[in-house]
Amino acid sequence: MPSARPALAILLLLGFLAPAAVLAPLAAGGDADDPDMDDKADDAASGRAARDLIAGWVTNETVDGIEFDLQMSALEPFTPYSDWQNLPVVYYEFFFDVITPQGLFSYSAKATVPMHGPLAAFTTYDLYAVTYGSQGAVLNQTPIGNPSGRYIVNAATISFTVAKSQIGEPARGDIIEGIWARTQSASQRNTGDAITEDTMLSHVSPGRSFTLTGGETFYSITITVTSPTSVNASPEEPARFDFTIHSDSEKAADVQVRNATALPANWTMSTDRQYYTVDAGGNTTGQVTITPGGNITNVTRRITINGQFRDDQNATRSTENTQTLSVLIPPAPGSGGGGGGASGQKGQDLTVYLAGAGVAGAAALGGLYWYAGIFKPARRRERAKASFSKIAQQRLGKAPRSGPTPGGPRLLLPRGGPGGAPMGPTGPRGTPQTPLGPMPPRTPGGPSGRPLPPRR
Q1: How far apart are the first and last CA of the chain?
Q2: Phi-psi region of 356 (alpha: psi -120 to 50; beta: other; left: phi over 0)
Q3: Tens digit of each residue's pLDDT (9 = 90 or more) over 423-433
Q4: Strands 434-438 vs 410-413: parallel, antiparallel or unpaired
Q5: Model confidence pLDDT, tens digit, residues 49-63
Q6: What is each CA distance from 373 to 233, 368, 369, 432, in whole angstroms?
Q7: CA distance 198 to 202
Q8: All structural domains of the chain
Q9: Residue among 64, 70, 135, 140 at smallest CA distance from 106
Q10: Distances in whole angstroms, Cα of residue 364 to Cα of each of 17, 352, 358
């Protein structure tokens, strides 16, 4: 219709001035060759290649979102001139279900492409919550958000990136299933229902399911020592341990084996390779060498090792486990700590000598105790007895020959008189002492007061 041409020319001009869409996909590659669903070509109702679905897949999961792609036989860089009078609108829909612990929820991502200039600059992208009937028919669609989208002409692909926050926050281990797709067309000149151009599978018979990873590559790597974990060593003969690294990861990793605990002073640790490449689901082997340092003997040192690697986000990660190695430094030769042979005999002799010295020391201590605690006090008592007896005899010899003076002091003498045995605490042969009568007072002279003649 001639009156419509100026409006269409303006629309095309605006299309040139609008920001251009991406010309090449950002997908991680490979999904177009192995799609989650596909459909035979050239079966669109209108016969238009841009409305003919041939494949679809789920890809490029990140922490925050996930991508859904639809591929056609071709995409139109602009609306053909023959369709201008009809003002066509084409709808591309990708349907999917999300299964989480909270239940199953159905959605669809829809691209609405009006009559357009280069690269469909006025395409809009919407996200809907979908309600199905018992036979898989779509009963209702409620708009809930706006995914980002791309209209990729050279790959004949329409791509939707849906935020996880808009579809129930699915996490690692949750599932996307029930995928199918359809294209529809309508005319802006009438209000009639859209016509279904092509359908790829259905909600009753959907495509392949997709298990979410959480947007991160899964890594699980373990290290196991396969040789004895306790080994004798010396600076001349270091300890060597064989190990195996196993990976249950989704990708390969380059693992470096390191000590997880500090090495003793002057000790060193090395491996036969700097890095050990272990494939997803695979194993690799290696050897670690620990060399003691310093002048030490008869000790045991324990060293813990593990593996470290970088994931696909360049973050440092560690193996799921550690291994503890024991390095034993034996006693020095001839020290007796080794056991057998002449060295062992010397150790036994030394034990006997030490035992004999112990007995002799005990005997010496016993003799010293007898001398200081028993013999010497007894001897002191005997000397005291003798001294006391001598003094008593001297006093007796100086005393008057007459009897005791009434009221005078009394002197204890042994039984038998002044001429008896030496005085002491007891009499001769242990007989009790006999008390004497009162002694007369001592005067300068004799009983008459006259001086005594000198002794001859």
Answers
A1: 188
A2: alpha
A3: 444 444 444 55
A4: antiparallel
A5: 999 999 999 999 999
A6: 57, 8, 6, 28
A7: 11
A8: 2-211 (no CATH), 221-329 (2.60.40.10)
A9: 140
A10: 116, 18, 10
